[in-house]
Amino acid sequence: MHAYKPLKIVDARQPGWMDALVPTANERRNFIVVLKAADQIAKVCDVLQCSQKFPERLNRLSIVALADVLEPGDHTMLLGNYEHNYIYFVEQLRLATNRPPHVQPFLLYCEIRGIISDHETLEDAGSNLLDYLDSFKRARLFPLAGIYHFEDETWVRIRKFNSHSGNI
User: Fold this and answer.
1) I need a surface site. Which of 1, 51, 74, 104 has the fewest CB within 10 A?
2) Where are the alpha helices (DSSP H) in the chain?
3) Phi and psi, residue 103, nearest 5°
4) What is the DSSP letter of 104?
5) Which pTM does this prediction carry?
6) Selection from 157, 154, 156, 164 nearest residue 143 by Cα
7) Distance between CA atoms of residues 91 and 31, nearest Å
8) DSSP character for 138?
């Protein structure tokens, strides 16, 4: 049901990287962007319509923590380049294109992987979360999945959800 995919990387050191930026963001999964210069993040955010704040710059420890969600070669490349390049984690919740009316008001979202699905009601999102946890064995490795609701111009994680199956 929910196929596992490692995080993608958009590498500004490669030709055509700008052409890959929007299609990668449109996949609704979080991703990493590697930049040659710190000021390139403003261009990335302009193109992607980052809302509220810039993506988070990754340090060595952050990259190490992402080992399970990266291809081994990508992980090695990031560890070898974080001191000389600017590496950022782009979260789908921060992009203006992932706000209502472009998406439903409830998201099933993993803080590492990104948007899993969007829903009109809390009940639908809760049901999908239970299915996700039940059917996607790797979800046990990604306990950061939860339901988010769009409130006051921002995404807010719902802390409690009562369903017929119990509490989430």
Assistant:
1) 1
2) 17-26, 40-48, 60-65, 72-81, 122-135
3) -130, 165
4) -
5) 0.88
6) 157
7) 7
8) G
